[in-house]
């Protein structure tokens, strides 16, 4: 590329030298333009080390026509700033997002003193007056749901091209080996290529427009937003758009600015009236940067930085570097995460078909193992692209949202959705991508302590079913979903999981144990003795987001009970993790003693007369027999309370519960289907796990592989990725001495007879590679950062393995 531009410059400026004929000059220019075109685009072939070309090809989403709507566009992102790329020919649209563009206050407030009504509600439930309890809690405890007050788009960058002729050889793709989207086509004998990536190194989106003939690129650029924006030119080659997020002038939130810089080679550039026009350029590079005044450390004290200066500094810094270096650094930075795991499930020939055709074939009953491998890696791509160290955590749509008033505000739902976003983080070797989750949950502790004290008269901290970047923790909305103080306790499980996978004692001591303790302090105060059983129960609380018919009035439904299965399982989980951490850290004090005593007296879930695991404390008739939440199965997954080895008496009841839900229409949302995949993987049911992976693709996946709730929610993508990993390896059990048991191919579908996976993480700090052939394990390689023991479970065979620090041990005989 550099040589081509130097040549053009010399030809333009050499005076006093005898010129060659015009025809020869044109021929040489075309030649050097071709050199530039092929040199630059050769970089797009950067491969994933250690994989064959078939796997590289299979790690692409590709299509033969532009996106017709947002759910067909392709996502790019660097954790903070992202875009949806439509791949248009005459007009290209980049729908832009920045993670912190949120509308603002007011936020929900605590109903101070509500604990007095909670005490009355408990008495009503114990008396069987469920509907009255619901009404009391709704009136006296729940705050109003404030909506819309949403995460919002940053805006759109529109590229209007001056092209004449019918395009041919059209293709658009997203290469998740290197996190680059690309559109290519030909018009009137000119081959055009457009590339897009969001660089974390430069904190900017980069767009590269090239053609294989000189002076072939002409376009007009403009920026726009649905509301709350102004646009202006900055100098000759920059546009800026700025404003303050709101909901029709109310809920004033974050102030934002985005700037775009155009860098053409050759041709002319003009600017004015909020547009930039480029004519007859050889190539064009666009840089897009964004900034807001959001202060993650103190959201109600906005940053005072000059947003224009921040954006301009980013753009100028990026523009000073060579394009090749920008791209190389972006790829290297991305691949340091992505390349850790490779997956081959066979079926590589399937990559010869466009992604949308492969999805259609799945819906018609075909099998496509390679598409499932692509879906797995796409989930990892989306997590890397929406959750990086220092960023906000991935919200309900990751970072990609085109609605000023997004469904459910695109917020952080902590009754499964936010947690599901991070199910694949540890097992698929993306522990760093988990960090924004930890930072955010820790930031909720002050508000959660205030809510615990004001609403419940309790110690510790509490989070309910949802929150957002304004760090509120109050119970809001309807009791059906809002009266559920278990969100914080569930989130603390992730802290212990991070330790289990990585063995980071400093993290356990400084982060995991303190926040688990804060949650446990609330739970200890929240629990009450059930007069019917003498055991400790949680409540009044919903089983998200289900309801039941009341025994006294069979046609009346209620939501709240005492001792719902999910509450009890989450509390068991929290207490168990606290005690495990305390033992590792050698903590023995009054608090630990209280937790031990409470755990010993905790009510556990029951099995009903029909053999199913009971969702509530009593055998109520369900209103929605196919409800999307399977809350009472938390203890199977993501928890580890129920296993075939420890609690075989629960396993049949769990199986019956899943089958009952599915037979009544359950699994009809993407994230619910993803949860079911993980259930069946934990149960070792490969046939059912595969059946639901296939259903996830056939019924709940858009052409761009985004998950449908419907509408779009990214949690199904992440849950599906975790589920595929769970079919290949599990590590949630230990032996009696605490040694990790790594189960290999515990739910391998027969449709994946031969394949391999490398780089999966197991609890205990192990990294695992697995190769199988004709449905049987062929080899396993294990690595650990320290000398460590583990046990391998291969079907009915268990074998002990000692791994030396830093060395990979490969085993090919299993007995």
TrEMBL record:
Domain Glycosyl hydrolase family 95 catalytic: 323-728
GO biological process: carbohydrate metabolic process
Annotated Alpha fucosidase A-like C-terminal domain residues: 740-807
A Pfam family this chain is assigned to: Glyco_hyd_65N_2
Keyword Nucleotide-binding: no
Gene Ontology molecular functions: alpha-L-fucosidase activity
Sorted UniProt keywords: Signal
Leader sequence segment: 1-44
Domain Glycosyl hydrolase family 95 N-terminal: 61-296
Superkingdom as given in the UniProt entry: Bacteria
InterPro entries xrefs: 6-hairpin_glycosidase_sf (IPR008928), 6hp_glycosidase-like_sf (IPR012341), AFCA-like_C (IPR049053), Alpha-L-fucosidase (IPR016518), GH95_cat (IPR054363), GH95_N_dom (IPR027414)
Protein name stated in the entry: Alpha-L-fucosidase 2
């Amino acid at each position: 590329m550099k040589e081509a531009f130097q040549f053009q410059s010399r030809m333009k400026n050499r005076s006093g030298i005898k010129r060659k004929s015009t025809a020869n000059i044109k021929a040489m220019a075309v030649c050097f333009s071709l050199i530039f075109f092929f040199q630059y685009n050769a970089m797009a072939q950067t491969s994933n080390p250690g994989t064959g070309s078939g796997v590289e090809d299979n790690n692409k989403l590709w299509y033969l026509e532009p996106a017709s709507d947002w759910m067909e566009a392709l996502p790019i992102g660097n954790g903070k700033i992202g875009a949806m790329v439509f791949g248009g020919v005459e007009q290209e649209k980049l729908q832009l997002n920045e993670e912190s563009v949120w509308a603002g206050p007011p936020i929900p407030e605590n109903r101070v003193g509500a604990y007095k009504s909670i005490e009355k509600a408990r008495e009503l439930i114990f008396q069987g007056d469920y509907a009255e309890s619901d009404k009391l809690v709704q009136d006296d405890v729940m705050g109003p749901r404030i909506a819309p007050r949403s995460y919002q788009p940053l805006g759109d960058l529109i590229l209007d091209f001056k092209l004449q002729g019918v395009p041919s050889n059209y293709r658009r793709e997203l290469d998740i080996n290197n996190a680059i989207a690309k559109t290519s086509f030909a018009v009137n004998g000119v081959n055009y290529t457009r590339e897009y990536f969001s660089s974390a190194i430069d904190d900017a989106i980069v767009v590269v427009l090239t053609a294989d003939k000189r002076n072939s690129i002409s376009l007009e650029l403009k920026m726009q937003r649905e509301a709350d924006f102004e646009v202006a030119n900055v100098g000759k080659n920059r546009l800026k758009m700025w404003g303050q997020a709101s909901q029709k002038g109310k809920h004033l939130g974050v102030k934002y600015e985005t700037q775009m810089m155009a860098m053409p080679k050759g041709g002319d550039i003009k600017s004015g009236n909020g547009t930039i026009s480029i004519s007859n350029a050889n190539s064009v590079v666009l840089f897009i940067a964004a900034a807001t005044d959001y202060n993650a450390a103190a959201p109600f004290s906005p940053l005072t930085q000059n947003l224009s200066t921040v954006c301009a500094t980013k753009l100028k810094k990026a523009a000073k570097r060579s394009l090749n270096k920008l791209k190389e650094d972006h790829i290297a930075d991305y691949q340091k995460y992505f390349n850790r795991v490779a997956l081959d499930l066979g079926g590589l020939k399937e990559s010869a078909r466009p992604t949308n055709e492969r999805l259609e074939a799945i819906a018609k009953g075909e099998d496509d193992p390679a598409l499932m491998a692509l879906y797995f890696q796409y989930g990892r791509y989306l997590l890397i692209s929406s959750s990086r160290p220092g960023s906000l955590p991935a919200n309900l749509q990751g970072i990609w949202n085109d609605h000023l008033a997004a469904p459910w505000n695109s917020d952080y739902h902590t009754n499964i959705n936010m947690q599901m976003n991070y199910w694949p983080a540890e097992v698929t070797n993306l522990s760093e991508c988990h960090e924004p989750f930890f930072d955010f949950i820790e930031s909720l502790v002050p508000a959660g302590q205030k809510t615990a004290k004001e609403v419940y008269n309790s110690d510790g901290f509490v989070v309910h079913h949802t929150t957002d970047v304004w760090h509120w923790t109050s119970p809001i909305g309807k009791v059906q979903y809002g009266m559920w103080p278990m969100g914080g306790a569930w989130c603390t499980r992730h802290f212990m999981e991070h330790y289990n996978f990585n063995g980071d004692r400093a993290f356990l001591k400084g982060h995991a144990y303190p926040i688990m303790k804060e949650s446990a302090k609330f739970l200890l105060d929240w629990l009450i003795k059930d007069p019917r059983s003498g055991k400790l129960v949680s409540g009044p609380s919903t089983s998200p987001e289900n309801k039941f018919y009341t025994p006294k009035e069979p046609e009346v439904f209620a939501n709240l009970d005492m001792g719902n299965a999910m509450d009890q399982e989450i509390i068991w989980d929290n207490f168990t993790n606290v005690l495990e951490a305390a033992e590792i850290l050698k903590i023995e004090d009054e608090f630990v003693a209280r937790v031990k005593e409470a755990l010993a007296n905790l009510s556990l879930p029951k099995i009903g007369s029909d053999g199913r695991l009971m969702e509530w404390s009593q055998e109520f008739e369900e209103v929605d027999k196919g409800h999307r939440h399977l809350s009472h199965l938390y203890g199977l997954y993501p928890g580890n309370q129920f296993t075939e080895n420890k609690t075989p008496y629960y396993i049949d009841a769990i199986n019956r519960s899943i089958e009952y839900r599915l037979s009544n229409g359950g699994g009809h949302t993407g994230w619910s289907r993803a949860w079911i995949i993980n259930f069946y993987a934990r149960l070792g049911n490969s046939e059912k796990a595969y059946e639901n992976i296939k259903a996830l693709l056939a019924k709940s996946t858009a052409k761009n592989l985004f998950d449908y709730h419907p509408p779009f929610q990214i949690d199904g993508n992440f849950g599906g990725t975790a589920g595929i990993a769970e079919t290949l390896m599990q590590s949630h059990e230990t032996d009696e001495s605490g040694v990790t048991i790594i189960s290999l191919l515990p739910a391998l579908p027969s449709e994946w007879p031969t394949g391999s996976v490398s780089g999966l993480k197991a609890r205990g700090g192990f990294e695992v590679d697995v190769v199988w052939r004709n449905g049987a394990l062929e080899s396993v390689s294990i690595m650990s950062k320290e000398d460590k023991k583990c046990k391998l479970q291969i079907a009915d065979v268990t074998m002990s393995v000692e791994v030396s620090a830093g060395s990979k041990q490969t085993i090919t005989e299993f007995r």
